[in-house]
Amino acid sequence: MLTIYCEHITKRTEYIFDVVFNYLIKTPYKITNSKQEFTESNNPKFSYTYEGELNIIPSALLSQSSIKQNIDLTWHNHNNQKWLFKTNGELLPFDVFSSIFYLITRYEEYTANDNAFDEHGRFLLDKSILTNHYQYKKPLAHIWAAELKQKLTDKFPQIQFEERKYSAELTVDVDQLYAYKNRGVINTLAGILKKLSAGKWKQCKTQVNTILQRKNDPFDNFTFFKEISKEVDLKYFIHCGAKAKNDPRFINSNSNKKRIKQLAENSKVYIHPSYKSLRNSKLISIEKEKLELIINKKIEHSRQHYLVAKLPKYYQNLLKTDIKHDYSQGYVLENGFKTGMCIPYPYFDLSNNLKTQLTIHPFHVTDLSILKNEKNLQDVYTIIDQIKAVNGTISILWHSDLFALQNSSEKWKSILLKIVEHATA
Ligand SMILES: [Zn+2]
User: Fold this and answer.
1) How far is the CA of 298 from the centre of ligand 1 (A)?
2) More exposed terminus of the chain, fewer Cβ within 10 Å: N or C?
3) Are residues 172 and 209 in the same domain?
């Protein structure tokens, strides 16, 4: 058991010690603000104070309870690695706790101007401090925590650390179950007429052939995903919203419901709240309940359609609807580590200065990054290798309709297979 002396134990220090010692380096610990208890303890120990022979000197960040602008975020070099919050302590010359806290709470999003967000409200990568020397390409929180682990091991070889196990998951957004199937007579005829008047002959032919069951629906790749699920943990996020700007129509027909129920028998089926639910949070519950009724299971996992996760409102809304796990933290068009993390961890709401019941599951790799530039496939492998090195969980984001939209279904299936093969090798 490691003993840590901390003069002012705050909600932030309690939270970050929990994340660092229970999630990142996994070793039992105890925090005390009693100098006597600390002095008398025979455990391996260090102090998180300005003085003390073996210490990490705190920056001001964790003793505060409000969100501050103008935090010094200068990068420093140490042991071939970039660090924040230089404080020159004996155990580590950086405040590793403030550094990890800053990254994983997404502090920079709370202090950013409106121009740091795109038209949907998504934080722009080029406005992040992590663009400095491509720090977003590394699992920084893990790397910093590993340095702390090394320093503790050097001083106290008797400390035991539990090893985490590497794992891989494939998370699939199902914006629309089918392109043409089960849409009803009126919608189908309207769709065909629209395509004819726009001169989209090829699409029109595919639609007719799908309806006549001469061809498989182009969005119906669920048999392919089922095969992959033998190799990797598969999670579907299903959009159940109504037709609106940036939202497809969810068709609540018996055959569609039956199909979703089948998916839930073999894989995990979670909610993909509509774009409209960002403006009307009641829709999250309505859509969630609709899906729960279909699969006859309670749903506590979610990923927002369009990946809009504006903090803190978005997570506060999820918590009100009994969602306990979110998968929206990652870059839309880039592979990397938006929170510096590659394991699930509890979300700390900076606006209320509180640890919450919500668990964040960051994702690291997306189909859209490869769609943007196929050379990014190499980058995907590098990201996977880094996650393997820290025994994290690689989370791959894919869209169920991507194969159809790309008009080269086989090629894109083989790309996904290569990624899964690398992730599970
Ligand atoms: Zn979506």
Assistant:
1) 21
2) C
3) no
Q: What is the mean pLDDT of residues 358-362?
A: 98
Structural domain boundaries enclosing 79: 2-155
- pLDDT tens figures, 76-97: 999 899 999 999 999 999 999 9
Distance 214 CA to ligand 1 centre (A): 28
Whether residue 208 is predicted with pLDDT greater than 70 in this model: the reply is no
Each residue's pLDDT tens digit, 239-276 = 999 999 999 988 889 989 999 999 999 899 999 999 99
Write the DSSP string, 17-50: HIIIIIIIS---EEEE--HHHHHH--S-EEE-SS
C-alpha 122 to ligand 1 mean position (Å): 14
Ligand 1 centroid from CA 339, angstroms = 21
Domain count for the chain, please give it.
3
Q: How far is the CA of 310 from the centre of ligand 1 (A)?
A: 16
Q: Does residue 345 register a pLDDT over 90?
A: yes
Clarify whether residues 195 and 230 are in a common domain.
no
- What is d(CA 141, CA 55) in angstroms, rounded to the nearest whole number? 20
- 221 shares a domain with 209: no
Same domain, 222 and 211: no
Q: Assess whether pLDDT exceeds 70 at residue 206.
A: no
Domain contains 162: no
Q: Are strands 167-174 and 233-238 parallel, antiparallel or unpaired?
A: parallel
Could you tell me the distance, in angstroms and rounded to a whole number, from the CA of residue 303 to the centre of ligand 1? 8
Q: How far is the CA of 76 from the centre of ligand 1 (A)?
A: 38
Q: Separation of 237 CA from ligand 1 center, angstroms?
A: 8
Residue 53 has which token pair?
Answer: 């022979």
- Residue 50 near residue 57 (C-beta atoms within 8 A): yes
Do 205 and 223 have their domain in common? no
Residue 404: pLDDT band (50, 70, 90) is: confident
pLDDT digits (tens, 9 = 90+) for 131-159: 998 999 999 999 999 999 999 999 999 99
Question: DSSP letter at 80?
Answer: T
What distance in angstroms lies between residue 424's CA and the mean position of ligand 1's atoms? Answer: 25
**CA 159/CA 381 separation, integer angstroms:** 33
Amino acid sitting at position 42: N
